[in-house]
Amino acid sequence: MIELHQLIGQNIMKTDTQLKHDVTAELKWDSSVNENDIGVEVKDGIVTLSGHVGKYSEKWAAECAAQKVPGVKALAIEMDVKLSGSNNRNDTDIARTAKSVLEWTTNWPKDQVKVMVEKGWITLSGQLDFEYERQLALSNVRHLMGVTGVSNQITLKPFLSTNSVKSVIDAALKRRALTDSQEIVVTVDGDKVNLSGVVHSWSEREMVSDSVRNTPGVSEVSDNITVAY
């Protein structure tokens, strides 16, 4: 299976030779990756990683390492996870372990996240309140023995509204005995929130932004609030 990752904001110009050198060096530097198992090819700024690795966590680490290199326009993944010996597990065992790990390491209700496993590939589904919970679920099963890949299809609960975000800001300001939120403008687009307006200190600005980021259903916050002393 070939996976293509388009990278956003990578506009640094490097030759393909420079990129290959830098990606190879990044793989070698990462202790969780055996760079001898991974081939690197570059054409027109697009990096292709190929080869066979012994576990999915190593494949994931290689992808992350390549994405860190400035100048990479896109990443094509042609790596396979080849399990051997004790790393081989049947899908039932993997599913059981994944469910147990999620129950041990999280505090959301049981069966809030569904686990499906096919040929070692885990698919997560369900609904959660926060983006960090989606990422926690992914990271908790990614390193399990026998896993060949993970698809994160967990969604966030769509109950976000301008009034609900405003209420969160009002409550946060009242807890700190700060000014009211009349000068803060909130715009909601799906699960994204834009903040603008004026506050009277940097600590107030950060507190408002952090409160919104922790609001259930928010996946992205654009903070354009200015500080007027």
Observed structural traits:
229 residues; alpha/beta; four-stranded mixed sheet; 6 helices; flat
Apparent shape: flat
Number of helices: 6
Low-confidence stretches: none
Number of strands: 12
State mean pLDDT (0 to 100 scale).
83
In angstroms, what separates the terminal alpha carbons?
56 Å
Helix content: 25-40%
Q: What characterizes the major β-sheet?
A: 4 strands, mixed
Strands ordered across the widest β-sheet: 1-4-3-2
Order of helices and strands: EHEEHEHEEHEEHEEHEE
Radius of gyration from the alpha-carbon trace, in angstroms:
22 Å
Set down the secondary structure blueprint.
Elements: E1 3-6, H1 16-29, E2 38-43, E3 46-53, H2 56-67, E4 74-81, H3 91-105, E5 113-118, E6 121-128, H4 131-142, E7 149-152, E8 155-156, H5 162-175, E9 184-189, E10 192-199, H6 202-213, E11 220-223, E12 226-227
Parallel strand pairs: 3-4, 6-7, 6-8, 10-11, 10-12
Antiparallel strand pairs: 1-4, 2-3, 5-6, 9-10
